[in-house]
Specification:
Layout lengths: L2 H7 L40 H13 L4 E5 L2 H9 L7 E5 L4 H9 L7 E5 L4 H6 L5 E7 L11 H11 L2 E5 L4 H4 L9 E5 L13 E5 L2 H14 L5 H12 L1 H20 L6 E3 L9 H7 L7 E5 L3 H9 L6 E2 L9 E3 L11 H6 L6 E5 L5 H12 L2
Parallel strand pairs: 2-3, 2-4, 4-5, 5-6, 10-11
Antiparallel strand pairs: 1-7, 6-7, 8-9, 9-12, 11-12
Helix pairs in contact: 1-2, 2-9
Bound molecules: pyridoxal-5'-phosphate.
Length: about 375
């Protein structure tokens, strides 16, 4: 079956007891057991909950994986993957990873003795060179944030295989509609379900998806032992989001491409970073790797620096000034003051996060309205 059909039907079978087309939300902390010391399918909602499981089954199917785990947030999911590591272990991470992942790696993992090296995952030779005998995991993102850099997922997975290390990827920006990293050889796919999977700015959630049963068992143990699971209401909303995921992502990507093309020809903009534009360094790779569209995130740079970018971000009406992304509502943000404010200025400079950058999350509004909104905000 096709992606959008599976998004509606896998894991979302009607309720056998009542025939309800939409399965009920299982708001329970605990489950009655058949006997003392004998267990049913579910026993306690931290360990497993039917509404959470339904979402996990749908997402695992869409990512082409065997097993998914749903978390309270995306960061809880990334943290769980990082708990596979211990003192002395080393991670090589892409240099344009999500700001929260950067903070987790540099301010939390370092305290438990896990070392991290950032290297550009778009430069495979440099990325591989950062691997040491202590390296246990590679961690990448594609498209990367906020440059929209495209990493060759299959090539990084091949490096990981050859060097005998795990490879994890934050697939939040692409979503499984556009990139399915497990099919390209990745070991762990991570999502902030807060973004495209949920898609309506009304939930926090995260997920890990894997194919290997042994790896799943280790992650399940860590999740259950530490407890940052997705709640049943969020799981219901996330499942509801998945049903329209493909339609939303394809339509939002279509509008993003139109906006990118319009902005690229505008004298008030100094740079447009969007993998759908032929001028983007990742364009050819994105055409091969991403499934028929380039995503709905784009970054622009205005020539006037911090103040000019701030003025634009504070002037749009439809593009609302907020962090986060991936929802039907378009959002605008200034990375240097918002998503990447936890970077020190040297790290910001090293990662090309300049003062004039503006990040757009293109929603489901009409292209013409979004264009007019930006046109007004950019001024004359
Ligand atoms: C938002 C985001 C996260 C973190 O997810 P939360 O749900 O906010 O914890 C991780 N990676 C990327 C790419 C994100 O956009």
């Amino acid at each position: 079956m096709q992606f959008r059909t599976r998004a509606i039907h896998v894991g979302q079978e009607c309720d056998p007891q009542t025939g309800a087309v939409v399965p009920p939300i299982h708001v329970t902390s605990t489950f009655v057991q058949p006997g003392a010391g004998t267990w049913g399918e579910f026993d306690y909602s931290r360990s497993g909950n039917p509404t959470r499981k339904a979402f996990e089954r749908t997402l695992a199917d869409l990512e082409g994986g065997g097993y998914a785990l749903a978390f309270a947030t995306g960061m809880a999911a990334t943290h769980c993957a990082m708990m596979l590591l211990g003192p002395g272990d080393h991670v090589v991470a892409g240099s344009d990873i999500y700001g929260g992942t950067y903070r987790l790696m540099h301010k939390v993992l370092d305290r438990v003795g896990v070392k991290v090296t950032l290297a550009p995952s778009t430069d495979l030779a440099a990325f591989e060179k950062a691997i040491t005998p202590h390296t246990k995991m590679l961690w990448i993102e594609s498209p990367g944030n906020p440059q929209m850099s495209i990493t060759d997922v299959a090539a990084v997975a091949a490096i990981a295989k050859r060097r005998g290390v795990l490879m994890g990827i934050d697939n939040t920006f692409a979503s499984p509609v556009l990139t399915r990293p497990l099919e390209l050889g990745a070991d762990i796919v991570m999502h902030s379900a807060t973004k495209y999977l949920g898609g309506h700015s009304d939930l926090l959630g995260g997920a890990l998806v894997v194919r290997d049963k042994g790896l799943f068992d280790r992650l399940y143990f860590l999740q259950n032992a530490t407890g940052a699971v997705m709640g049943p209401f969020e799981a219901f909303l996330a499942s509801r989001g998945l049903k329209t995921l493909e339609l939303r992502v394809r339509e939002q990507s279509r509008t993003a491409l139109l906006l990118a093309e319009w902005l690229a020809g505008d004298f008030r903009i100094s740079r447009v970073l969007y993998p759908g534009l032929a001028a983007h360094p990742g364009h050819e790779l994105a055409r091969r790797q991403m499934d028929g569209a380039f995503g709905a995130m784009l970054t622009i740079e205005v020539p006037g620096g911090l103040a000019a970018a701030k003025r634009v971000c504070e002037s749009t009406k439809l593009f609302q000034l907020a962090v986060s992304l991936g929802a039907v509502e378009s959002l605008i943000s200034q990375p240097v003051l918002m998503s990447h404010s936890s970077y020190d200025s040297a790290a910001r400079a090293a990662h090309g996060i300049t003062d004039g950058l503006i990040r757009l999350s293109v929603g489901l509004e009409a292209f013409e309205d979004l264009r007019d909104d930006l046109d007004r905000a950019l001024g004359t």
